[in-house]
Design brief:
Layout: E1 2-3, E2 10-16, E3 21-26, E4 30-35, H1 36-42, H2 49-61, E5 65-67, H3 69-76, H4 83-97, E6 105-108, H5 109-113, H6 127-134, H7 139-151, E7 155-159, E8 164-169, H8 171-180, E9 189-193, H9 201-214, E10 218-220, H10 231-240, E11 244-248, H11 258-270, E12 274-279, H12 280-284, E13 298-300, H13 305-320
Parallel strand pairs: 4-5, 9-10, 9-11, 11-12, 12-13
Antiparallel strand pairs: 1-2, 2-3, 3-4, 6-8, 7-8
């Protein structure tokens, strides 16, 4: 057995000549490919357990992904998920692997205390795998998340001994999973809200549209589509059916675009992710309404469209994962 270049767990790996890298099957990260350059770059994070946990969680959500130096830079910027986000990831995973309602899975508390040295009992869930799924630093954190889910009545835990528990997703847990999936997980549409003016059409054509498409989602801008209904009805219907919204708040001398504010707020009210963008000078000169200035904007300039396009694509993939849409 070799060592995983990301988390240092024992892992299977094979040399991939065409990549000058390796394919890895890790019990914590899952399956991925990584270039030699990226492996070298990642070594500087040895010992940074929180960052490693973030990376394992990201890779778990992007299985069979190619990790290169750009991916390492992306992972480095990821924020640690909240306790609720970690618990939801764990619950969704348990729901996904449950073959039937009430199926129980064993978990060894002894392994949770020492996941790198205590083997997984036959028929039990590997704690390292659960650590990767939930982006946790250690096995103890997994146990606390399971207890949290039990307290919320989303999980049932049957304690057989001081070291052996059996867990199953409750009826309330499956209902909660369905609610989490209500944010259009099957949609491949990336809705763009922006100022429809000739002076900024290049932004959509050269950056936003290709970034959404390259991330694996179908770019959608309402003025690019033919319809016979009222424009506001079409906007509402298409936001409701989208996976996320890219909202660009750039405007002209006549002032802010109220429609963009409304569409971003409507999307947030539905629980859809909103990616906030704006021309750099508008942010630096405080030309946006103060209520939205606290959001993490992706800035762009006329001279930096290629960089903005790449950063927007990475932001989409970091939040939602790679989509499956391909242009005809």
């Amino acid at each position: 057995m070799n060592k995983c270049p990301i988390c240092n767990s024992e892992a299977e790996s094979r040399f991939l000549r065409e990549l000058d890298g390796e394919g890895v099957n890790c019990p914590r990260c899952g399956q991925f490919r990584i270039t030699r350059e990226a492996s070298v770059n990642w070594r500087r994070f040895t010992g940074e357990e929180r960052l490693i946990a973030n990376a394992c969680g990201w890779i778990r959500e992007h299985q069979n992904e190619l990790i290169n130096s750009e991916t390492v830079e992306l992972i480095e910027t990821l924020k640690a998920p909240t306790v609720t986000e970690k618990a939801n990831r764990l619950l969704r995973y348990l729901g996904r692997i449950s073959a039937y309602f009430g199926e129980q899975f064993g978990i060894s508390l002894q392994e949770a205390r020492s996941p790198l040295s205590v083997p997984t009992p036959n028929g039990f869930l590997p704690v390292l795998e659960l650590m990767g799924v939930a982006s946790t630093v250690n096995g103890d954190e997994v146990v606390h998340l399971l207890k949290y889910l039990e307290d919320e009545r989303l999980l049932e835990i049957n304690k057989l001994s001081t070291t052996t528990n059996y867990i199953s997703v409750s009826a309330g847990g499956f209902s909660h999973i369905e609610q989490l999936a209500a944010f259009n997980p099957e949609s491949n549409i990336g809705f763009c809200a922006m100022w429809f003016d000739d002076s900024v059409n290049f932004l959509y054509d050269k950056a936003i549209e290709p970034a959404i498409g390259n991330a694996g989602y179908r770019p959608f801008r309402i003025d690019k589509e033919e319809h016979v209904n009222r424009i506001d009805d079409e906007i509402f219907a298409n936001i409701r059916s989208s996976r996320f919204v890219v909202a660009d708040f750039t405007h002209g001398e006549t002032g802010v675009r109220g429609g963009v504010y409304f569409e971003a707020g409507f999307a947030q009210g539905l629980g859809l992710p909103v990616i906030w963008t704006c021309r750099s000078d508008m942010l630096s000169e405080a030309k946006l309404h103060f209520d939205i200035r606290q959001y993490n904007f992706l800035e762009w300039t006329d001279a930096s469209l290629d960089d903005f396009k790449d950063r927007l694509q990475k932001r989409i993939e970091a939040i939602l994962g790679r989509g499956t849409w391909k242009p005809e």
